[in-house]
Amino acid sequence: MSILLVEDDKTIASGLEYSLQQDQFSTVLCHDVETAKRVLETHINQFELCLIDLSLPDGSGYEICKLVKEQSDIPVIFLTAIDDEVNVVMGLDMGADDYITKPFRIRELLSRIKSVLRRYHKQPLAKPIIEIDSVRINTLEGKVYKHSDEISVTALEYRLLLIFANHIGQILSRNQLLEQIWDVAGDFVNDNTLTVYIKRLREKLEDDPKDPRFIKTIRGLGYKVGE
To answer: Which residues are recorded as modified (4-aspartylphosphate) (predicted)?
Structure first.
């Protein structure tokens, strides 16, 4: 998932870029309005969100927001050092989705980003039948089979399996899984609970749970199903 980051303070920009990449986002960094406009003219479709500083050396973040909203339905979050109601209202009236006032904690910013993205991206509709190796998921009936034998799974185990099924071949970090389980289930799921649910799914679906081949651990990155 790619984010356009427009921030003229190079120290802040460097820290933000590092933190976003650590949270599995890819970033394109611009330090001024003109560079951001050139990037958007040719690559606007590659971005899923824009983080824009309000005060830039050659203009205002408003200009970039206006350009984005005229060409695409991409969420925009303003970074501002001015906690001023007039500026905030103006930005929101232009179509910005949220703002955050400096200085801010990176976890708060990440939370705001994910909250905005959740409003833009709904869970994809699952296919009626999903087959992954020897596992078959009947999404119309909410049933799971292994080698044609029905496997009993809990509601949250089923939801976790569907998340993997909707991202076949992709590495999903623990944070990504936790975010999506929270969205779908509406229940509190912490890191330890996620470990338990993955263990239970492996016990039910793997030929050898101690040497998992279906839900693969990608060391240091997360988990992957398929391909």
So the answer is: 53
Which tokens belong to 164?
Answer: 């993997």
The type of residue at 33 is V
Measured between alpha carbons, how far is residue 25 from residues 17, 49, 132 in Å? 9, 10, 27
175-216 pLDDT tens trace: 888 877 764 444 556 778 889 889 999 999 999 999 999 999
Please list, in sequence order, all residues whose beta carbon lies within 8 angstroms of the beta carbon of residue 42, skipping any fewer than 6 positions away.
none
Would the pTM of this model clear 0.70, i.e. be above it? no
Please tell me the predicted confidence (pLDDT) of residue 215: 96
Q: For residue 49, which amino acid is it? A: L
> What's 129-225's CATH class?
mainly alpha
Q: CATH for 2-120, among 3.40.50.620, 1.10.3720.10, 3.30.70.1450, 3.40.50.2300?
A: 3.40.50.2300
User: CA-to-CA distance for 13 and 20, rounded, in angstroms?
Assistant: 10
174: closest CA among 158, 203, 153, 198?
198
Q: What gap in Å lies between CA 179 and CA 116, rounded to an integer?
A: 13
Backbone CA torsion sign across 203, 168, 73, 106: positive
Question: CA 160, CA 164: separation in Å to the nearest integer?
Answer: 7
- Cβ atoms < 10 Å from Cβ of 185: 13
Strand duo 26-30 + 55-56: pairing: unpaired
Q: β-strand 135-138 against 129-132: which pairing, if any?
A: antiparallel
